[in-house]
Amino acid sequence: MNRGRREKTLTSRKIVQLLVPTGSAPRLVVLAGLPASGKSTFSDGLVENGFVRLSLDEIRKEIYGDANIIGDWKVTRKIIDERFNAALAENKNIVIDNTHFMRSHRKRVIEIAKAAGYVDIHVVVMDVTLEECLKRNAVRSRVVKEEIIRDMHKWLYGSEFPSDAEGLVTVLAPTDVRTKYKVSGYVAAVA
């Protein structure tokens, strides 16, 4: 869903290179996308380039031994907030790898980052079709209920799609080549 923006086809490696900051200001990348849209796989490239990844899935796996166990939301929220604040205090480049299908979810972390002095804020949308996410979800080890993914899709692709008011928005849509994306928004403009 390129929403009228200029589009280019780029490799995931090139996209990551363009998201790694070249100046001294730390960068926050907020990923948004349905379960099984490739957020964690994409964020691997940012982590390999020095970003700190924060993920509720990883925290649940760490605490409960299984990312599927939602557990006590207050506990996971406290841990992710502590780690987020520590990374902000150290001026680290941060990627937040969660669904962020609602604007309020993104707004919360963006406001915390801005309060810590971050000005280089990006929202990267993994624009994978609902059908493809459902197909991927069915064959992965951590299966999310179909109705939950469908509800998230209604929100994200309805009134909650990221806007430039939130930060520099980049939309990544997979192509037939596993390592390439159709890219619109910030990254397409600077490529």
CATH superfamily: P-loop containing nucleotide triphosphate hydrolases
Mean pLDDT level? 93
How many helical elements?
8
Spatial gap, N to C terminus? 19 Å
Q: What is the H/E order? A: EHEHEHHEHEHHEEH
**Rg from C-alpha positions?**
16 Å
Question: How would you portray this structure in words?
Answer:
This protein is an alpha/beta fold. The protein has a single domain (7-190), classed as P-loop containing nucleotide triphosphate hydrolases (Rossmann fold), CATH 3.40.50.300. The chain is built from 8 helices and 7 strands. The protein has a 7-stranded mixed β-sheet with strand order 1-7-6-5-2-4-3, sandwiched between helices. The chain is globular and about 40 Å long. The mean pLDDT is 93.
